Amino acid sequence: MSETQDPKNSMPQGNPESVVTHTDAPPKLDLEGSKQPLFKLKLSLPGKDIGGDWLCLNTGGALAYQNYCVTQGSVRQLRSYVYTDGKTYLYDQDGHWLSYETIWNMLYMSYWSYAAAWKIENNRLIREKDGALLTCRPPRDWPLSYPSYYLSAEPQSEYTLKVEEVAIEG
What we know:
By secondary structure, the chain is mainly beta. The protein contains one helix and 13 strands, in the order αβββββββββββββ. Helix content is 2%, strand content 31%. The strands form six sheets. Strands 3-2-4 form a three-stranded antiparallel β-sheet, with no helix packed on it. Strands 1-13 form a two-stranded antiparallel ribbon. It starts with 15 loop residues before the first helix and ends with a strand.
């Protein structure tokens, strides 16, 4: 599949100027030999069922939804990358970057040009641009998709998730 046909390279919904964060070439990633530790993000929302325990890639439903992040599916193994702007970006075992779309703030894995900066503080995953926190609302049933616990970045609420970085031994 060419890069232009790949759904991860399609323009996320919303204002394109607010989504494109990098116009330079993507960093050269050594997915196998990186010295950066590999980790997973364990998710919890005390007192509520969120359908799973990890930041995952959606594996069910229509192809259009398979790059979105959910709580059950294909667990993402992540690494941090500190860019020249001093901010931290997260990429997965496939070399895709954690991003979001601007209408619903849903998290998804995409190319470097849409990567967003993130930080983990006080057991919260925080989007650097605006301080939005990793959130999981009750399952959404999008057209041609299974009801899933989609992850988003939103202001603090009763749905704000606790996040734990769990090292992967390798």
